[in-house]
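Hi there. Long-time user, first ticket. I'm pasting a complex I've been working with (about 225 residues overall). I'd like to know whether the download I got is complete or cut off, because the file seemed smaller than I expected. Thanks.
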Amino acid sequence: RKEVEQDPGPFNVPEGATVAFNCTYSNSASQSFFWYRQDCRKEPKLLMSVYSSGNEDGRFTAQLNRASQYISLLIRDSKLSDSATYLCVVNRVGTALIFGKGTTLSVSS
Amino acid sequence: EAGVAQSPRYKIIEKRQSVAFWCNPISGHATLYWYQQILGQGPKLLIQFQNNGVVDDSQLPKDRFSAERLKGVDSTLKIQPAKLEDSAVYLCASSLNLGGSGNTIYFGEGSWLTVV
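Hi, the file is complete. Here it is re-exported in full:
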């Protein structure tokens, strides 16, 4: 079983739609959680960190449920520019980032 | 501030040949990572350095892959001999210190390897 599992996608949505991505992690020692965004043929870039209390950044909301070892990302009012692959990422103290396979989002007009 | 620099950006080699990739991290970043990303998958850690010491190389195929960071700054990743399944993007990344919340990791643009 992979340490980080994500919905495979792809998700194809119209502009303005709300879309949610889910992710589970298997190691209960994981302490830090992130969503990274990767555009086609580009490097991954940090989208947002994920905190137990939940956090929001504009149209993006991230949630963490430690008991269920579950992470989510909600994108409201999707834009064409949101089209990308979204990578769920976890981290333990002193270790490198562990990436999920990624979920591809395609927003169409 | 300059980002993580990698070269070459693209390389095509035949199987059984060798290749080397170079990485210059962000100035002052003690931790350097090499990740392998195969098409359609997430990045997978190959090796992690803290200054010039190896922190984690458990997923590095040591029969063909090697990496070094002799002076604690630049790093090279070598593959010899290459196999078809090594075709991937090799991403170098750096962070101020060992990863964790608040310690952002920055990636270079990657070195794209095609083995034919």
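A couple of notes from our side: Chain B touches chain A at residues 33, 35, 40-45, 48, 55-56, 91, 98-102, 104-105, 107-110 (CB under 8 Å). Chain B has no helices and eleven strands.
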